[in-house]
Amino acid sequence: MVEVSRPEEKARPALTDRFIEFAEGSLSYEQLSAVLDLLPLDLVFVDKDDVIRYFGGSCGFYPHSKNDLGMNLFSIHMPKSVPKVKAIVDDLRSGRKDKHAFWFEVRGRFVYIQYLAVRNKAGEYLGVLEILQDITDLRALQGKKKEL
C-alpha cells in the first residue's frame, strides 16, 4: 500500500462562516458540504498526482473509508484491476479522452459510472472525477410526471 502526504488534519478555523465564490454565485462551506452530501450519486476526486482528495454523495454504493483520503488511487484497487484503472487515468490525463463510462448490474441494481477529466480553463489536467449513480429506478420510469 502506497501512502502519500495527507492534508493536515488540524482544525479549520471559522471555515463554516466562509463563502466560496463561483462564476455563477457563492455558497458557504456549510451549504456546499450539505449539497455535495445530498447528491443522489457518489463522487470521488483524484488529483493530478493520483491522490484521492475527496469523496462524497449519498448513493453509498461502494462505501469509502476516510483512510482512503490522501492515498494513491492505484493502491486501493485490487491488483487485477490496476491496469484498467491506469489505462483510464492515462487516457484522461493525456487528453486522448475526456470521459470513460461504464454500466453494469451488481447486487440487483443497475450502476452507471463515469470518469471525467477535470481541467482548468487553460486545459491543464487537474485530476479525475468519478461519478457513480444507481440508476435502477431511472431505468424503470415510463410515461410522464409533470404534476405534484
UniProtKB/TrEMBL annotation:
Gene3D superfamilies, per the entry: PAS domain
Residue span(s) of domain PAC: 88-147
Entries under InterPro entries matching the protein: PAS-assoc_C (IPR000700), PAS-like_dom_sf (IPR035965)
Protein name per UniProt: PAC domain-containing protein
Lineage, highest ranks first: Bacteria, Bacillati, Bacillota, Bacilli, Lactobacillales
